[in-house]
């Protein structure tokens, strides 16, 4: 009876090995398959991932020792073929971090676990990529049974749409826009830096129909509603301040919230006139063709 039991056990082990393809001579066959689906619903319930994210950089870490297991990049063609990832991993627990749209304006340091723009070369920052962030913990069982997971993304940027009207400087006639005290980077937990800050200098495009008007469309990393960010308009190359104001005050006065909202666009209209400077929510201003782009 014992011989029969051992015989049946041996058959079971051999059968499982053949089913999984796991043999000692080829340990690669001892990896379990994981199907990971990417999803982003923004501020609603419908998946809008294809509309917002065209590129994903994924980092896979071992939960056992925190080491980097793999780094994989998925471009628009790969995401069109499948909105997610098919990966093979040895049995164990893993942590996955994904950055969506980390393109020309983003430098990722896996070693420091931060994503930044201009942080390493001290270059002038004009804008940030429309970043998105996703993270999930997964497990590959010893049985090597295929596992399916969904990685949900969140928004890691804020859109700005700024228009300056009536700016007439006798020296250069071209203003400079500056936003101070913005986070220099965001970490792999999607937390923007509180200690290291920087200024952005968005590109201002002249209005072809009005020599005293300029527009800027740009992105920044996330920040809180109660912040110490200042917007400054410099009058010339010597950066004489023509006007400055608190972003937190503007958000409060116009009932605009950043915290708790994914897709945030902050529209600011700054009007210079002989009697002063008016700063208002630009939601009611005329739409400029091709201006509302990432």
Describe the 3D structure:
It is a single chain. The strands form four sheets. The protein has a seven-stranded mixed beta sheet. A five-stranded mixed beta sheet has the order 14-15-10-18-19, with no helix packed on it. A four-stranded antiparallel beta sheet has the order 13-11-16-17. The relative contact order is 0.14. Strand 14 (205-207) and strand 15 form a beta hairpin. It has helices at 2-20, 49-52, 76-81, 247-253; strands spanning 32-39, 56-62, 68-74, 84-89, 92-100, 107-109, 114-116, 132-140, 147-155, 157-165, 176-183, 185-187, 197-200, 205-207, 210-221, 230-234, 241-246, 265-273, 276-281. It is built from four helices and 19 strands. Residues 1-20 and 285-293 have low confidence and may be disordered. It has 294 residues and is mainly beta. The protein folds into two domains: 31-155, Sandwich (Immunoglobulin-like), CATH 2.60.40.2100; 158-284, Immunoglobulin-like. The N and C termini lie far apart (72 Å).
Quick structural gist:
It contains four helices and 19 strands. With 294 residues, the chain is mainly beta. It has a seven-stranded mixed β-sheet with strand order 3-2-5-8-9-1-4.
Could you tell me the CATH topology label of the largest domain.
Immunoglobulin-like
Q: How many distinct folded domains? A: 2
Estimate what percentage of residues fall within beta strands. 35-45%
The number of helices is: 4
CATH class of the largest domain: Mainly Beta
């Amino acid at each position: 009876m014992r011989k029969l039991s051992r015989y049946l056990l041996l058959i079971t082990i051999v059968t499982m090995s053949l089913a999984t393809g796991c043999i000692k001579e080829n340990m690669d066959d001892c990896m379990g398959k994981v199907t990971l689906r990417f999803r982003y619903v923004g501020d609603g319930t419908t998946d809008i991932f294809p509309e917002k994210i065209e590129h994903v950089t994924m980092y896979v870490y071992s939960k056992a020792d925190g080491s980097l297991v793999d780094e994989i990049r998925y471009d628009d063609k790969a995401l069109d073929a499948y909105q997610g990832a098919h990966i093979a991993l040895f049995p164990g627990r893993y942590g996955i971090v994904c950055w969506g749209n980390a393109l020309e304006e983003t430098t990722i340091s896996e070693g420091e676990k931060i994503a930044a723009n201009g942080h390493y070369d001290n270059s002038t920052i004009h804008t940030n990529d429309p970043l998105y962030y996703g993270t999930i913990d997964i497990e590959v069982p010893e049985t090597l049974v295929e596992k399916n997971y969904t990685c949900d993304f969140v928004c890691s940027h804020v859109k700005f749409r700024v228009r300056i009207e009536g700016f007439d400087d006798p020296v250069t006639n071209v203003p400079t826009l500056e936003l101070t005290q913005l986070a220099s980077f965001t970490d792999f937990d999607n937390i923007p830096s509180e200690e290291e800050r920087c200024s952005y200098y968005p590109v201002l495009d002249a209005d072809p129909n009005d020599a005293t008007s300029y527009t800027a469309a740009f992105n920044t990393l996330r920040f809180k509603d109660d912040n110490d960010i200042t917007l400054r308009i410099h009058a010339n190359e010597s950066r004489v301040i023509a006007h400055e104001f608190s972003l937190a005050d503007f958000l409060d006065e116009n009932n605009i919230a950043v915290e708790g909202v994914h897709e945030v666009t902050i529209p600011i209209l700054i009007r210079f006139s002989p009697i002063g400077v008016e700063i208002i929510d630009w939601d009611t201003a005329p739409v400029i063709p091709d201006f509302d782009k990432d």
